[in-house]
Amino acid sequence: MIRKKGKKTWASSKRQKMVRTVGNCLHCDKEITNDMSFIIYATKKPSHYSCYKTEAEKEQNAKSR
Ligand SMILES: [Zn+2]
Known about the structure:
Number of strands: 4
Number of helices: 2
Largest sheet: 2 strands, antiparallel
Shape: rod-shaped
Structural class: alpha+beta
Strand order of the largest sheet: 1-2
Helix content: 25-40%
Radius of gyration: 21 Å
Distance between the termini: 82 Å
Number of domains: 1
Bound molecules: zinc ion
Oligomer: single chain
């Protein structure tokens, strides 16, 4: 009896998403994982993209006054 090797069990594990923590958000201080959209500042501090946008809008409003 010949047994075929290589059942490709790894194929299913390959589907698993590699979720890694990026760090805490500069603005809301919540954890950011790499399955979210985020940005990293020049200061190497990460931020949610949504938080970054909110902050950018705030700044723009302050400037336009
Ligand atoms: Zn945030």
